[in-house]
Amino acid sequence: MKKQIVKTILFFFTLTVGLSGCSKYSDGPNFTLKTKEARLCRTWNVVSIGSEVINGYYQLKFTFDKNSNLTIRDISTEPGWEYDDAYAGEWRFSQDKKDIELIIDGEISFATIDRLTSDELWFKLDGEQFKLKAE
Questions:
Q1: Cis peptide before 79 (omega within 30 of 0)
Q2: What's the domain range around 123?
Q3: DSSP labels for 53-109?
Q4: Residue 6 is part of a domain; what is its CATH number?
């Protein structure tokens, strides 16, 4: 009986230690059962870019779908400055899945992922930290 308890404890300890190093991204998550694609493919609202918080009249949305299509919507509802611009492109993960390649009008940009959960996406793009929440 004691042997079985010791084996069980060792198994869970090994599992815990092994999984604690599974995170690809600096801000996690450390463990998830969902694939990176399943977590990424949805519509995301930008919460902040660098130190600037996005709220009020302005919205910026990224939509990633499973067919590698990307849509970015830039929306303003500020009186006198209303607009809703959409940009279509493609996306794909880099080979190590630490970056997202964003292809718009033939230009490729690399967004380095810091955090990717079902609810939060953080990445660095052109030297700025973007923080997004799932819609």
A1: no
A2: 2-134
A3: EP-TTEEEEEEE-TTSEEEEEEEE-STT--EEEEEEEEEEE-TTSSEEEEEETTEEE
A4: 2.40.128.280
**Residues 33-82: tens digit of each pLDDT:** 789 999 999 999 999 999 999 988 999 999 999 999 999 999 999 999 99
Q: What is the pLDDT, as a whole number, of residue 34?
A: 86
Q: How far is CA 130 from the centre of its chain?
A: 10
Question: Could you tell me the two tokens for 71?
Answer: 């849509």
Give the pair of three-digit tokens for residue 16. 């815990």
The tokens describing 21, both together, are 């190093």
Residue 78 and residue 59: Cα distance in Å, rounded?
Answer: 11
